[in-house]
Specification:
This protein has 197 residues and is mainly α. The chain is built from 8 helices and 2 strands; from the N terminus they run H-H-H-H-H-H-H-E-E-H. The protein has a two-stranded antiparallel ribbon with strand order 1-2. Helix 4 (72-85) crosses helix 5 (92-105). It is globular and about 55 Å long. It starts with a helix and ends with a helix.
Length: 197
């Protein structure tokens, strides 16, 4: 029942209700520790988390998004990818920059996290077969952003998207400890993948 409510819950006009979105409120319920009072309902919990998100999205952050020609919806969608891709703080703005660069040149985002979102259980490594999954969330098969957020990003991921790094990187891969390694071309990327995986 809570999942059904989350599918349609969109209390603010920047939350888009598209047919191909799994849960309208995905990404817009701020991940934090909350104090719950007696008999909380799914509605009251979602309302509390959505209000927290809306408050944290300050006028300054909203203005920065407008300056970058990013809707709030696209900001949070992109930040959700950064949230799931980056284990360490220093990687977030670099990964955000890589995604912006790929979007600019029309390259698929090819984010494994969007494939993980489609799977029944997380996998250490996605497979070639996984990249063939038919879904608008599959960023190997579809260019641009997925239909909506795939997770609830924290403020660090949101700020990384609003203030990305300035690099020439186009590729990244995480090693087994979660540290990302970057390259500017596919040949170098393949060498790094073979070294760290």
């Amino acid at each position: 029942m809570p999942a059904l409510k989350a599918k349609k819950y969109a209390p603010y006009d920047y939350i888009e209700r598209k047919d191909d979105i799994r849960y309208a409120c995905e990404g817009f319920l701020f991940p934090d520790t909350y104090e719950l009072h007696e008999d909380p309902t799914p509605e009251s919990i979602m309302k509390m988390m959505a209000e927290d998100f809306d408050t944290r999205l300050t006028p300054e952050l909203r203005a920065r998004a407008r300056e970058m020609n990013l809707s709030i919806f696209d900001l949070i969608t992109l930040a959700s990818l950064v949230e799931k891709e980056a284990l360490y703080a220093e990687d977030r703005p670099i990964i955000a920059q890589v995604f912006f660069k790929r979007l600019k040149i029309g390259m698929p985002l090819q984010s494994d996290t969007t494939l993980q979102y489609l799977l029944d259980a997380p996998k250490e490594d996605v497979s070639i077969k996984d990249t063939k999954i038919e879904s608008p969330y599959n960023t190997y098969q579809h260019r641009g952003l997925p239909p909506g957020p795939i997770a609830s990003p924290g403020m660090a991921a949101i700020k990384a998207v609003l203030y990305p790094a300035d690099t020439d990187y186009l590729y990244f891969v995480a090693d087994r400890k979660g540290h990302n390694h970057y390259s500017t071309n596919y040949a170098d990327h393949q060498v790094i993948v073979n070294q760290v995986r």
